[in-house]
Amino acid sequence: MSDNLASPTYVRAVGDGLVRRWSTPADADAIGLLLGYVFGSEQDPRPIPRLMAEARVLMRPDFAYMTPYDVAVVEDVSSAKSRIVACTFFWRHRWSYGGIVFDVTRPEIVATHPDFRNRGLARSLFEMIHARSETEGHVLQAITGIAYFYRQFGYEYMLDLEGSRTTYLSQVPEKEGGEPEPCSLRPATLDDVPQIVSMYEQRRAQSLVWHEASDARWRFLINAWDDQVARGEDVTQAGIGFRPWMIVDSAGIVCGALSLPERRYGKGLRVDEFWLARHARLPQLMPALLRALRDHAQRIPGVRPDIGPCTEIVFELGRSHPVYDLLGDSLAPRVSPPYAWYIRIPDVPAFLRLIAPVLEDRLSQSFFTGYTGTLVIDLYREAFELRFDSGRLAGIDSWLRPPYQDDADYPGLGSPPLVFLQLLLGYRSLDELRAIFPDVGANDDRHALINTLFPKQPSFLEPLG
Description:
Layout: E1 11-15, E2 18-22, H1 28-38, H2 49-58, E3 71-76, E4 83-97, E5 100-112, H3 121-135, E6 140-143, E7 156-161, E8 164-168, E9 183-187, H4 193-201, E10 209-211, H5 215-230, E11 242-249, E12 254-261, E13 268-271, E14 273-276, H6 282-299, E15 312-315, H7 322-331, E16 334-336, E17 339-344, H8 348-354, H9 356-364, E18 373-378, E19 383-389, E20 392-398, E21 412-414, H10 417-424, H11 430-436, E22 441-442, H12 444-453
Parallel strand pairs: 5-6, 13-15, 18-21
Antiparallel strand pairs: 1-2, 2-3, 3-4, 4-5, 4-10, 6-17, 7-17, 8-15, 8-16, 9-11, 11-12, 12-14, 18-19, 19-20, 21-22
């Protein structure tokens, strides 16, 4: 056993007969049992088989983001028959900022048995997650989750997550005439993966922060889904509920790809990944595609017998998407704004050093080209000074604000630490933050420099679970 929180052999008692440790392949069923109890609804008998199956799928050795040894767990060993009562999965992602690639930890899925809540177990597991993240050199942690909860572990909301527009099935235009449909859907195969990746990459240039997804993710989904079909599993209880589909024209040429569920949890069919080939003529294809999606929605089963018929298609494609522009208000009248990712950057100066080439390029493309000077970033509990020499970031040094300094002489930006991350990742502009937070401030003569270094820019960051 090790005392190192990040070590696979770490085991430590946390009181009341509970120990925290890292998982092994033998824990898959016990973790699944926990998920089956925690994430069910009142209508579901517990434990829910599909959630138990999901844990087994995620802990397969070929899963794209983790291994069977990457779940932080709390185990109740107070009785002869032990059980896992809390867990957090450690997923490894790769993201980029303006083309600078870095490793990211994504804590998913977080669960605590109802009988063991309010004991600090989630906090103890996040200590393990953050320790392993640091050990592996990850500069950022990101999670999708419930309101407020992860703020207490040093996370802040920033970067759009989801957002949707909804088309009702009653609005889907009917086919006219006897001509064949201009497009249809078919399940993706492994041979389609290179095209899926190529279509996914097309939006990269429009996104400041980008998920560097490898083809392993799509290969895993296709293989895992094919395994389920081969075993004849009940799709309403299988470990994976969605699969990649290809959009093909009447000649069989690929025009796009999307991710579709194979079961429904309510009245809507959710489309949460949608990519187009460069040659695709979406205006000509869209009516037929809506009909194909309608047919798929009416064909797939609900997770329970009481799930009613499908009545809508929910395009969950972010704040903006070409599909939204084409559908407009007439075909997609209901708009749901994005939620947001939780982001944690434990070492802000280190992240700034990492993205120095992006900062230098922004200076070179502005009237600050060749800039020599300094910019202080005061996060109140820590502060540092960025030193520029001829347009290059020469260093980042700790900075101590002199006592009684007049605000008029303030040499940079003042911001609460987590709020600054919104500026750093382009989620909010300096003016927006100053309008919202009274404790965000900047001297007028530094305003233009700050806006140049940290402009507001969109990020299309798909969860890609």
